[in-house]
Structure formats: structure tokens, C-alpha cells
């Protein structure tokens, strides 16, 4: 029976309502996309966290660490309990690592350089790497620590001692130390979470008491719900015109950079773009300012910010000067190209599931026509695109993708795109083969001094601009429409922002105003 006190308490509880297009994967060992990240960063914790408002990583579950060659030793806090009440120990860290490697799903590839993990004592863990890998600390933001004891008590069917490694259980239940507990999880509809009042860092009273993350809402539905005061934060996938309308009606526009960009990829192995001068001509002819205008929501806010080169602003090696169109330079490069415009027609592809890309294909077609270059625009479904790029001869002259650094480190953005060993994926349809690029990418993984890494990636950026495998459209900026009932400093104040997709949705850092 509900007592008056219980009713009063329920009526004063604050509720945050938000949505994501994709369904949410609750198992942290399988988390990969944006919805999964939101769940992971709230229900689970990691050894380190990105520094708010700047580069680098700060202690979190680990209170300190030291590196000795290929060994990394982490000292854990001794005041952390899982939501089950079980204490956090080094064995949980080892188990979480081994589980992720064994499952081989999600973002497990960022730990390819880690040979083993071992518990030295109850609160000390060592990771042994196969070779020097300076982005290792960054990778740890993708190693959520799970409650070994709880998972072992809930192993499902499977072969061997570990059976299913708790996959069935963790697909619907949480086993973390995080600031929010899972109340219910329906991956087709919504995940309901509530405050973990025993969280080791504490959860401010102003943070939402309950969170409802809904999946698959139509843009029109989200627009109506926010306008009626029945929704708090939209997904990042609303069309610019819907965001613009909501902003005009008084909604907040929250932003997250996340270390990603919009890339226009050029197939360097197929004529005419196997000639660097032809590629440079296209890069100089592209209208960067018009591209930003196309994704503008208000006079001050857009779904992208001006690019300065191959590395998004805020990362190691990013340049400072914004890219601009230079048609005269484009004409000169084309004159130096061994191919004549009347002898070829470019294939400009766009991904069918991303309608904004058709607008960019039309922009490129118009830009290139000013050089006398003919082009054909082709809509390609994502599944077909990923098949096409497996061979350079099947890969379009021009492809369009959005990519981001999944750990916030430039290595996880640039290596999968440009190293010659990984050509032929959706991230690398350029099929770039450049010894200098390979050398600098490898160096970026091995040097540990921040100043030297900065210099290495700056040199890499210069080289990419020199050989032009890609047109760097804009640095991606995710935009979210929000009611005025919520304050989200990590999504509105650059000095409190994280350089990692999804981390800005740490609910414990939000405030419900009730307005």
C-alpha cells in the first residue's frame, strides 16, 4: 500500500526523458554505438576518465598508475563498491578485460596490444602490452569494470568453465559501480535508470532521480513531445530543420564535439584520383563555407564546425587555420594533373541512410563543374557500400563518411583510415599507400611524451594536406534539442566538455531545474 510519505517522495522525484535512434546494448563488453555508450558511462565506471575541458586522462576507479616500458600498473581506490554491494578489487578488472577479449565484440579491438592483465594484490593490477602503445591509457575509457562475483553467479548456457561469460544476464541487468542503476531494460523500447545513492563519488541532489532513455522515436514525435514539455533531450539525429524549429520555439541546443568529422574520401588507386594534383584540385575547389551553411541550425550553431585539416580541432596535431575554397589554386592543380577533365566522369556516392549526404554530393557536383569536371551522383545503401570498398576497383571515386575517435585519441581515428595495412574498410576507401603516413602513424603509437606526440601528429596532418587523400568537410558537432528543465554543463560549456562521444551524457553531472 502506498503511504502518504511514499506518494510525497514520488511526486518530488525528478525525471529526465531522452531518446536515441538505435536500440541500447546494455552488455558493456559489446557496447559500440552512441546509445550503448550512454548506458555504459552511467551504469559502469572505468579506471580513467577524459579530463573535462582539455586533453589527457584523470584517475577514476584507479587512484594512480605508472608505466614501465610495456607494463602499466594501476592502484585502485579502496572505497568503491558495486551496486550489488560487492567491493571492487583487482580481480574484477582482470575479469572485465578477459571477458571483453574473449567476447571479441564491441570495441575490444582497442586492446589488441594488451597481452595480459593480472592482479598483483587486492587493489593493484598490471597490464602487459605486446609492444609500446602510447594510446593505451585512452583505450581504458572503453574498459568498463564489471562485478565478477555477480556475473559468476549468473552464468548462462555455454561451453567451458565460463559458459556464456554472463552474456544473457548482462543483456538485461547491470553489474557496475556506476552512478545510475538499471531498473528495467527493453532494448526495443526504453531503459529506465535511477540514482545509485551509494555511488563512491556521490550523486548531487540536483541530478535526475530517474532517467528514461527511449529508443526509435520518430523526429516528428520528439518535436511534439519537447514542444509539449513531455521530453527533455532529443537524439543527435534530428534533421537541421527540426532543430531549427525547436530552437525558434525556445528549446536549448546542446552540443558535443566528440573528436569526429565529416570526411569526403577519394579513391587514390583509381584514375583520375590516383594523381595527387587531381585530388588537390578537388580539395581546393570544394566550398567549405557552403557545407557549414548546409548544416546550420541557427546563426550561431551548426551540426559542424570549420575544419582545419585531417585532425579535428582539440586533438593532438590539429592545425589552426580554417580550410577555405581557392578556385584559382584548384585550376592550377588541375592543369598539372596528367588527366584531362573531358576524359573522365567522377562517381560521387552518398549513403542512402544518411540523406544529408545527398546535399553534399550536389554541392560537390556544382563545385567540380566549375573546373569543367563531369560527375554522376549515386545513392548507395550502407550494406552495399561496405561491400564495394573491399576492392579498390569497385570503390567509388568519391565516398562520404562520418567517423570519430572512439577513445578520444587520434590514433583510433587516423590509423583505421590511413595506414596502408587497413585499406578497404568503410573508414579507408582512399586505399592510401604512403610510406611517410605509415611511419608517422606508427610513431604516434610509440612516443609517450605529449609534446612529441603533438609534433608527430602535426607533421602527419601536414603530410595529409600535402597528398590530399581526403576532403575534410567539417569537424562534426552533435546537436541535441533540450527543454529548459535540464542543465547539462558538459554539453553546453566548453570548459566542462569531454572529448569523447557520449560522455557528455553523464547524468550525475546534469541538473533538473523543474522549470
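Q: What amino acid sequence fits the structure above?
A:
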Amino acid at each position: 500500500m502506498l503511504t502518504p510519505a511514499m506518494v510525497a517522495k514520488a511526486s518530488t522525484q525528478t525525471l529526465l526523458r531522452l531518446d536515441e535512434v538505435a536500440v541500447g546494448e546494455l552488455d558493456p563488453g559489446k557496447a559500440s554505438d552512441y546509445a550503448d555508450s550512454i548506458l555504459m558511462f552511467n551504469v559502469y565506471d572505468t579506471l580513467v576518465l577524459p579530463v573535462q575541458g582539455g586533453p589527457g586522462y584523470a584517475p577514476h576507479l584507479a587512484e594512480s598508475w605508472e608505466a614501465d616500458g610495456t607494463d602499466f600498473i594501476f592502484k585502485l581506490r579502496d572505497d568503491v563498491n558495486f551496486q550489488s554491494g560487492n567491493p571492487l578489487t583487482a580481480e574484477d578488472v582482470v575479469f572485465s578485460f578477459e571477458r571483453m577479449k574473449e567476447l571479441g565484440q564491441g570495441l575490444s579491438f582497442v586492446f589488441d596490444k594488451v597481452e595480459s592483465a593480472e592482479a598483483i594484490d587486492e587493489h593493484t593490477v598490471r597490464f602487459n602490452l605486446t609492444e609500446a602503445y602510447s594510446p593505451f591509457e585512452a583505450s581504458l575509457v572503453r574498459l568498463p569494470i564489471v562485478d565478477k562475483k555477480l556475473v559468476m553467479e549468473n552464468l548462462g548456457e555455454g561451453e567451458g568453465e565460463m559458459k556464456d561469460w554472463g552474456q544473457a544476464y548482462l543483456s538485461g541487468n547491470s553489474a557496475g559501480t556506476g552512478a545510475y542503476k538499471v531498473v528495467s531494460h527493453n532494448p526495443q523500447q526504453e531503459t529506465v535508470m535511477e540514482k545509485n545513492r551509494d555511488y563512491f563519488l556521490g550523486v548531487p541532489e540536483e541530478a535526475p532521480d530517474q532517467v528514461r532513455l527511449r529508443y526509435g522515436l520518430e523526429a516528428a514525435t520528439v518535436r511534439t513531445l519537447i514542444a509539449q514539455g513531455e521530453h527533455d533531450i532529443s537524439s543527435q539525429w534530428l534533421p537541421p530543420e527540426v532543430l531549427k524549429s525547436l530552437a525558434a520555439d525556445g528549446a536549448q541546443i546542446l552540443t558535443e564535439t566528440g573528436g569526429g568529422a565529416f570526411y569526403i574520401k577519394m579513391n587514390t588507386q583509381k584514375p583520375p584520383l590516383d594523381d595527387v594534383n587531381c585530388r588537390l584540385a578537388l580539395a581546393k575547389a570544394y566550398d567549405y563555407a557552403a557545407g557549414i551553411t548546409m548544416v546550420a541550425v541557427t546563426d550561431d550553431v551548426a551540426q559542424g564546425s570549420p575544419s582545419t585539416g585531417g585532425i579535428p580541432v582539440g586533438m593532438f596535431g590539429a592545425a589552426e587555420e580554417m580550410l577555405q575554397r581557392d578556385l584559382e589554386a584548384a585550376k592550377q592543380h588541375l592543369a598539372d594533373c596528367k588527366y584531362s577533365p573531358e576524359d573522365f566522369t567522377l562517381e560521387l556516392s552518398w549513403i542512402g541512410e544518411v540523406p544529408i549526404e545527398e546535399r553534399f554530393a550536389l554541392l560537390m557536383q556544382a563545385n567540380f563543374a566549375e573546373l569543367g569536371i563531369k560527375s554522376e551522383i549515386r545513392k548507395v545503401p550502407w550494406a552495399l557500400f561496405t561491400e564495394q570498398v573491399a576492392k579498390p576497383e569497385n570503390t567509388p571515386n568519391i565516398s562520404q563518411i562520418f567517423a570519430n575517435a572512439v577513445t578520444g585519441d587520434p590514433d583510433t581515428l587516423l590509423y583505421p583510415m590511413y595506414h596502408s595495412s587497413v585499406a578497404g574498410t568503410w573508414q579507408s576507401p582512399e586505399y592510401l599507400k604512403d610510406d611517410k603516413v605509415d611511419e608517422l602513424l606508427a610513431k604516434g603509437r610509440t612516443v609517450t611524451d605529449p609534446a612529441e606526440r603533438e609534433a608527430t601528429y602535426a607533421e602527419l596532418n601536414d603530410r595529409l594536406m600535402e597528398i590530399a587523400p581526403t576532403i575534410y568537410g567539417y569537424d562534426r558537432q552533435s546537436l541535441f534539442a533540450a527543454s529548459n528543465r535540464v542543465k547539462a554543463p558538459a554539453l553546453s560549456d566548453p570548459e566542462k566538455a569531454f572529448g569523447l562521444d557520449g560522455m557528455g551524457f553523464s547524468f550525475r553531472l546534469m541538473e533538473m531545474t523543474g522549470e
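Q: And what stands out in the fold?
A: The two ends are 31 Å apart (CA to CA).
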